[in-house]
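#lab-general

N.A. 3:47 PM
ok so I finally got the sequence cleaned up, no stray characters, all 154 residues accounted for. can someone with queue access submit it? mine expired

B.Y. 3:52 PM
send it over

N.A. 3:53 PM
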Amino acid sequence: PHLSVAMLDIDDLGRLNERQGREVGDRVLRATARLLTTESGNAQATIARFSGQRFALLFRDTDLQAAQDAVERLRQTIAKTRFRHGQEDVRITVSCAVTGSGPGDTYAALYERAESALGDAKRYGRNRTFVHEGKYPSPLLPVSLDIEERGMAI
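B.Y. 4:20 PM
back already:
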């Protein structure tokens, strides 16, 4: 059985907290969790807040390509969402990492690959997805998905 793992990290949440206050940041975290849950599609991901502004997604019986597709759709959906707080719109982006299990992989190995890919996604500009297939992380060339802008009250 395939197991794919993804990590999503909200970009610049600390700056958002400084500018708009921690309450707005917390609302954005909760709204992001709702979006991840409702928009994960057919991938059947188990989603958990991992630490701080980071979420982990476990895709059971899902190959790496299907997990990449799901994560990239989530990334673009979040970027096209206006989180409404009163009269203000708050926009966020997320950096993403995806890796898949191979023969003999441990959970620690999957975690290390996901961390490495997420670090590269942050380092190379944020709001992007990196994939780690075993040797080293590489950027996912994003396909422009037909995702409409939306508003979401927080």
